[in-house]
Amino acid sequence: MEKLYLKIVELLGTIPEIKYIDLDSGQLQEEKPPLAYPAVLVRINEIREDVDNVFQIVIGNIQLLVIDKTYSETNNITPEAVRKKGLGYMALNTKIHSILQGYQDSEFRSFTNTAKTDQQLRKGLKTIAQQWTTSWRESMYNSN
Q1: DSSP letters spanning 66-131
Q2: What does the pLDDT look like over 33-85, one tens digit per residue?
Q3: Which end is more exposed in the chain, N or C (fewer Cβ atoms within 10 Å of the end residue's Cβ)?
Q4: How far apart are CA 43 and CA 6, in angstroms?
Q5: What kind and span of H or E run contains 6?
Q6: What is the greatest pairwise CA distance in the chain?
Q7: Residue 8 placed within a domain
Q8: 127 with 67: CB under 8 angstroms?
Q9: 30 lies in a domain?
């Protein structure tokens, strides 16, 4: 799990617009969330399957909570320049998708985006939950 988190931080770190990346530990529940915006909070869950007594296949289910402040109006009567600024969070989500979709290396199999959902978690913040999966092989110790 740690290797996967560090890989996500490395990949998202190439996007200069992102000001803060952390594991999700409930920061948005605080009165004043201790985040710099735009921020990405990461949750990782694993499903493991024994292949034999030597290794396991691990499926990593990742949620990226992409959070940005709501800066301006996005409605149809708003001037285009103002609307574009208000829709900046969409461009950021597209950049994240471009970096992660299909990424693979010697450790991780291809990252796949499975869903994006708009979540209204706090007034004044735009929050998109991106769901991702990847998998990898992990050695396991068998004392028998």
Answers
A1: EEEE--S--STTS-HHHHHHHTHHHHHHHHHHHHHTT---SSSPPPEEEEEEEE--STTEEEEEEE
A2: 999 999 999 999 999 999 888 899 999 999 999 999 876 677 788 888 888 78
A3: C
A4: 12
A5: helix 2-12
A6: 70
A7: yes
A8: yes
A9: yes
User: Which residues 6+ apart lie within 8 Å of 25 measured at CB?
Assistant: none
Structure tokens at 143: 């004392």
How crowded is residue 30: how many other Cβ atoms within 10 Å of its Cβ?
9
Residue 131 belongs to a domain with what CATH number? 3.30.2000.10
- Helix (H) / strand (E) containing 5: helix 2-12
pLDDT tens column, 9-45 = 999 999 999 999 999 999 988 989 999 999 999 999 9
**Model confidence, pTM:** 0.88
**Total residue length of the chain:** 144
Residue appearing with tokens 């949620």: 63
Give the span between the Cα atoms of 107 and 90, in whole angstroms: 30
Take residue 39 and report the two structure tokens written for it. 């921020």
Distances (CA, A) of 8 to 38, 60, 91: 16, 12, 19
Tally the domains of the chain: 1
